[in-house]
C-alpha cells in the first residue's frame, strides 16, 4: 500500500494555529491583510488554498508571499513551500555527504516545520521505532516535574531533532506512532519555553511544529491540546478575540476524538485563564463551573497519558486565581487553602503558584505579615523547583505589598527576592 498522503501539513498547521480552522476563514484573513498592506483587491480563492495545501504546493508569487507571512507570522520557506531554485541547486549538488557545522554541536535547535516525507527508498527503520522513541518521550514527560527547565529543554530539543530525522525513514503505522510521540515532545518543549523559561516567541513556533507532527499522526486529541496551548499566548497579552478563536479550534479537534472529561474540563480551564487575564472574571467563573460539572459527570473515556498537568485539584487552582482577580477574597482564600492541602508533594511548580496567589489574597486583605510568610514558603520552593510562571506570581504578590514595603517582614522578603544568587539565577534563566 502506498504511503499515506497528508498534503502540506506545515501550512495547514500554521493556519490552524492562527485560529483559522477552515480554508474559507483563511481566504477572509488574507483578503483583510491585503487591505491592511495596501495591496489592493488581491483575491485568494479556496481553490488556491487547496493547491497550496496539496502534496506539491506551487511557489507563491511575491504578493501572496507577503500575505502569507503577514497572516501566519512565518516565512514561506517554513510553510511547506520550496523555491524552484532550491530544487535546481539540489539537482546539481549531487549526493555528497552532509557534515554538520560546529554550531550544531554547541546548541540544539528545534526542527524546522517541513517534516520529511515517508520513506520511499533508502534506509527504513523497523516497525518498533515509534514505540521505542515514545518510551523516551514518556520519560521526559515524567522528568518535567523535577529536572531544571533549561537542562530538560536541551534534552527534549535533541530528542525532537532525532524524531524529525527518523520520520524520513519510516512508513505506515510506525510513522504515525513516531509522529504522535514527536508531537508530544514538541508540546513539552513548548510548555517549557512558555511556562518555565518565559520565552513565548520561541514557544509559538514550537507549538506550530507540534501541531504539524500531530497532523502526521492524525491524533485529534493531541491537536486539541496543542491548539489550547497556543491560546495562552494571546490570552496572556490581552488579545481576547484571538485566544477565543484558538480555543474554538481546540474544541473542534476534541470533538473528533474520544475526549475524556479531564481534557474537556481542561479546555474550559484554559479559556477561563485567558478570560481572567483579559479582565472577564465573570465569564471565566462560568467556564470553571462548567468544568466542575464536566468532571463530575464524566464521559466514559480515559484521559491520554500525556494529560498529566491537569486534575480536579489543578482545576481548583485555576478557580482560586480567578476568584482572587475578581476580588472574591474569602472564596479565593478557601479555594487556594484547599488546593494547598491536597497538592501532591511532587507538584512543586504548582505549589509556588498557589502560594503566590494566597500571598496576593492576604495582601489584598491587608494582612502583610501573613502574605510575607507565604512568600517565604514560595521562595523556599523556588529554590528547589524553578518555575518562571511561579516567580511571576511571587512578584505580583510583592507588588501588592508596596504600602508596607518599609516593614521588617517585607524587607526580609526583598532580601531573599533580590539576593545575589536569586538575582543572578533569574537573569540567567
Question: Can you tell me about this structure?
Answer:
There is one protein chain. Helix content is 68%, strand content 0%. Among the domains are: 75 residues; 90 residues; 106 residues. About 5% of the residues have low confidence. The longest helix has 25 residues. Helix 2 crosses helix 4, helix 15 runs parallel beside helix 17 and helix 18 runs antiparallel to helix 19. It contains 21 helices and no strands. By secondary structure, it is mainly alpha-helical.
Précis, in short:
It contains 21 helices and no strands. It is mainly alpha-helical.
Pick out its properties:
429 residues; mainly alpha; globular
SSE blueprint and pairings:
Layout: H1 9-17, H2 23-36, H3 46-52, H4 62-72, H5 84-93, H6 102-106, H7 129-143, H8 149-167, H9 172-196, H10 200-217, H11 220-235, H12 240-255, H13 261-277, H14 281-297, H15 312-325, H16 329-342, H17 348-364, H18 368-384, H19 388-399, H20 408-417, H21 420-428
Helix pairs in contact: 1-10, 2-4, 7-8, 7-9, 8-9, 9-10, 9-11, 10-11, 11-12, 11-13, 12-13, 13-14, 13-15, 14-15, 15-16, 15-17, 16-17, 17-18, 17-19, 18-19, 18-20
Query: Helicity, in percent?
Result: 55-70%
Strand content: under 5%
Number of helices: 21
Rg over alpha carbons: 23 Å
Task: Tell me the number of strands.
Answer: 0
Main sheet: strands, sense, barrel: none
Q: What is the SS-derived class?
A: mainly alpha
Instruction: Give helix and strand order, one letter per element, not per position.
Output: HHHHHHHHHHHHHHHHHHHHH
Task: Let me know the average pLDDT.
Answer: 87
- Terminal-residue CA separation: 49 Å
Shape: globular
